[in-house]
Structures are given as C-alpha cells and as structure tokens.
Amino acid sequence: MAPKPPSEFCERASQALLCEACALAAPGAAADASAPAPGERIASESGIDEEAALALVAAPETEAGVALANAVAPEHLEIITEDAGLLAARVTTAGCVFVGELSATAFGDYAAGSNHVLPTGGAGRFQGPLGPRVFRRRISTVEITQAAARELAPAVATLARAEGFPLHAESVEERAKD
Known about the structure:
single chain; alpha/beta; 2 domains; three-stranded parallel beta sheet; 31% helix
C-alpha cells in the first residue's frame, strides 16, 4: 500500500494526537494502516511539504491538553475520552468539536448539521464556521450515537469518496461497525 499524506485536505496540514498517557498503543487498526509513525516523513504522488506534521503530544494533565487545544485552535477537534462532553464544553477556539469515539469529522462535514467550511490555520481563535451569523463566535459540536453512525455512514462514505477523501469514508465506516 502506498503511503498516504498526513491530511486529505492539503499537503501542509498538520495532525496531532494529544494524550495524558502517551505510552498508549496506536489509536486503532485503521489509523495504523493509514498514518505514519510520529516523526516519519511521508510522500505522496504530489509530494508532502516539509512543513506538514504529525505529532504525538504528551500533556501532563487534562487542563494542559485543553489549554493546548485552545491555543492551537484546530479546524477539527475530536475528543475521545470518558468525559468528552465535559471537556468539549471547555474548548473555546476549535472550528468544530467532535465529542466521543463515534463522532468522526466526516459526520460533521457531511451529515450532522455542523458546517463544512471551518476556520483553518488557527483562525478559530477569532473566527467560527462560515454561516449567517459569521460575526458571532460559536463552535459546532457533533456527538453521534451508534445507531446514527450505522444509518449515516453509507451516505457519508459515498460523499467523502466522491470528494476525494477516502480516509473520511473509512473513518465513518469503522465507527458504524458494532
């Protein structure tokens, strides 16, 4: 299998896995197949810019993790922990927060009602998703149940593949499995 770029969106995009206990195993089999090891250089047919990044970041405690997420202001922020909803309420700068292990980014992009046009490059510190109330600060939050994941995944996967985002499609298909 050919290496895949760190992000389907752009060659300079960065991704991070932030955790308190970074002695953890890989995030999952699906991630193992598509993501490089931390620090590994990736190339695609078009090449990957040297500024692209994939990082494993150790936070000494949850508060530090929330502070880092707010400082980075990511376009998409997936919170996968027992108290995901409580943590999501403390995020103030992400374009969209995805709450819980079933809430794949692609659900928000294609079916769950959040906006697909989100602030990038840290712009979430001052700008929310594009919408009629663009001058009022807001954050989209997506939380998907197992039943909803099963129902939405086929349509979301079709749309994601049509747009050229195969990893989005795989992310919802994996979450739709029992």
